[in-house]
Amino acid sequence: MNCGTCGTALLTAQFYTGAHSVPPYLSRKRGKGAFEPERRSGVDCFVCPVCGKIEFYAQDAQNLLFQ
After folding, report:
1. Dihedrals phi, psi of 54, to nearest 5 degrees
2. Rounded Cα distance, 37 and 33, in Å
3. With the C-alpha atoms ordered 67, 22, 58, 33, is the resulting torsion angle positive or negative?
4. For residue 25, what are the contacts with CB-CB under 8 A and spacing of at least 6?
C-alpha cells in the first residue's frame, strides 16, 4: 500500500490508546443511550516514513453496520 500524498510505501505501525493492553477500536451505536447495542471493529495503522501521513483502516468495517 502506498501513501496517497507522496507515493512512498507505507509501513505498518502500532497505534496505542494509552490504556495498558487495550488496542484501539472503532465503536458505533444506533442511539445515544447507555444501553444501546454497540458495534465494534479493530483498527490497522499505517505511516509514511517520508511525509509522516498516518492512515487508519477498520479491520472489519462490515461489523459496524446495523441490520
Report:
1. -115, 135
2. 9
3. positive
4. 40, 41, 42, 43
Query: For the segment 44-67, what is each residue's pLDDT rounded down to a tens digit?
Result: 999 999 999 999 999 999 988 887
The amino acid sitting at 25 is Y
Q: Print the SS3 string covering 17-62.
A: CCCCCCCCEEEEECCCCCCCCEEEEEEEEEECCCCCCEEEEECCHH
Q: How far apart are CA 67 and CA 25, in angstroms?
A: 20
What pTM value is reported for the model? 0.73
- Side-chain half-sphere of 31: how many Cα atoms within 13 Å? 5
